[in-house]
Design brief:
This is Thymidylate synthase. The protein is of the alpha+beta class. The protein has helices at 3-18, 56-68, 73-78, 85-93, 106-112, 114-133, 135-141, 148-153, 165-175, 227-246, 267-274; strands at residues 20-22, 30-41, 155-156, 162-163, 183-185, 201-209, 212-223, 249-263, 283-286, 301-304. It has eleven helices and ten strands. Helix 1 packs across helix 11 (267-274).
Amino acid sequence: MSKSEQQYLDLCRHVLKEGTKKEDRTGTGTVSLFGAQMRFNLQEGFPLLTTKRIPFRLIASELLWFIKGDTNIRYLLQHNNNIWNEWAFKNWVESKDYNGPDMSNFGLRSQQDEEFNALYQEQMDLFKQRVLEDDKFAAAYGELGDVYGRQWRAWKTSAGETIDQLKEVIQTIKKNPDSRRLIVSAWNPEDIPSMALPPCHTMFQFYVSEGRLSCQLYQRSGDIFLGIPFNIASYALLTHLVAHECGLEVGEFIHTLGDAHIYVNHFEQVKAQLGREPKELPSLKLNEEKQSVFDFDMEDISLTGYDPHPTIKAPVAV
């Protein structure tokens, strides 16, 4: 059994058993606990869950989107990645330019009303098509504001300049690997109002020891069933990419959580997953010809040996 995956399954069990019932922004409801940590030895395999299929290509394209400093969903849609659509769609249907059918509270209504869900899917398809084909529309409504990519690559200063946090951290790892300042922050209080979704994974720190690169993420809020499996794999991939550029081996990914929660409409899915036996972790393969993190494309990243249990579907709380 994978020790890495067992940590995640143990977290699920702990939150179901000990979590506190809490209301939340989406109106769905959760059970939650405050403060948890998982440690993944990246030498033992790539930590992509096997007790349900996790779409690695979505994780990789989202991470490359962050690394590019992009904040518009067009790039994601071009790679058949729909994981940020709901937040952009929400901005569109709540705008003065939208004149279609009422889409208020579409997240919950689409789960509860089949007729409304069909209407919602139709409007979402139209929205995606316009983002892909209409430059002006994409600029206005495909844009998510000052989210992760902007903060990582173009943090705004009081002097009106920008800081490329990710590039500076990589250069510091190369020049001064013992630095205790290898930090990238996505939590910029001034920009929170202009973000479609304030950053859940708020900051990460690298650490070099004995030729290995480790990364610790602090995540203020974590959707355990849907979100956290993505976050684990995303930051593990980031660690591999940065280690590759810096000529280091990978060490650990440490995942520290603030509000770790399971949505009440995910209980049955979590219990189904807990009934499955973990399998061997896959291995990550990177294109050795690419040297810089910033040069990688989707075709340069692949997995081998991934043989998970089937997908378990669950609704996204928006």
